[in-house]
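Input.
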Amino acid sequence: ISTLYTYRSIARALPTVSGDDGMKKKMYAASFEVLHPHISRIKALMYFKDEVVTQFCNNMALLVPQDARKRNDDVRIPCEGLQLALISALDVVVLLDSLKDTKACLNNDFSTYKRAFAAVRGDVPNAERIQQENNLL
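Output.
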């Protein structure tokens, strides 16, 4: 959470890309080099959030038996400690998601990163993997 909360825009500090094509490519390469480690950390955080949501859903499905869900019967309530742990996990996911949505600097950095990547795609190793990750953002 602190990673997102304390995140500051890097794209604003980068110079505006201008000049001839050779100079633009160098500037985009430098921008990509600067942004890539920071964007990778944010991507890892978002993948973690997605994994937590998946595990949360799986755990809820295990807690509530299928036949009880169909009948709408009173379902045996799990222990209070488990309920508190699930609520805490859900709270972290909601907080991460809302921080991601409210930090406009993340969107600015993502768009600058994608623009720089598009310009230097041929020179980057693992370009296909990065492109697939960028499509998920």
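The chain has six helices and no strands.
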